[in-house]
Specification:
Length: 193
């Protein structure tokens, strides 16, 4: 496929999609670096060997995976002209995203209750990595929620209709990416303790 061919709109759409992919790849590289540093740091003598992930982090995984499904279904419904069903699914996605964030904060409170802190005399390199990586992901999830809010706003302003859903498609792609990134991180923390 020749990327220089097509109408201005087709070229513009391809450029927007390419920029999204560049952004996601850079985020992936950031987390690759953070998790690599985590692996290298495991050889330190002060590394916590008995640290367990809070249950809330696993619950939050269910919320974010469910939100990915509802967002995808919303996109499909909107693309086929079923706006009302799409509206409900978008709002469910927002609820699930909010539950993800709440469960993350609950997970952090469990970590603190167990006596593990991000900084200070009671902190450790293990928990500092956990906080840093999880908070970095949370920042991207907040960005994803802002994107979701823009999608909901645009949907209710009837800016999406069959054949005109680029913004929605890109938002869903970014959301799926964030979900897969969290699954990678939770599995990483589970298996590389």
């Amino acid at each position: 496929m020749d990327l220089t061919q097509g109408t201005f709109q087709e070229k513009n759409d391809r450029a927007k999609k390419m920029m999204l992919w560049f952004g996601m790849i850079s985020i992936l590289m950031t987390f690759g670096g953070l998790t690599s540093a985590y692996v290298v740091s495991k050889s330190r003598p002060d590394w916590l060997q008995d640290f367990e992930l809070p249950t809330a982090f696993f619950v939050s995984t269910a919320f974010i995976l469910s939100s990915s499904v509802t967002f995808h279904l919303a996109k499909n419904k909107i693309q086929t002209g079923r706006r009302q069903v799409g509206s409900v699914l978008l709002l469910i996605t927002l609820l699930l995203a909010t539950l993800f964030v709440v469960s993350q904060f609950y997970g952090f409170s469990q970590v603190i209750e167990d006596g593990y802190y991000f900084t200070g005399a009671q902190s450790s390199v293990t928990t500092s990595f956990l906080y840093a990586i999880t908070v970095a992901h949370m920042a991207h999830v907040i960005a994803g929620i802002l994107v979701l809010l823009v999608v909901i706003y645009n949907h209710f302003k009837e800016k999406y209709y069959p054949g005109q859903t680029l913004g929605l498609e890109m938002a869903v792609t970014f959301w799926h990416f964030l979900d897969l990134l969290w699954v990678y991180l939770i599995l990483f923390f589970y298996f590389f303790r």
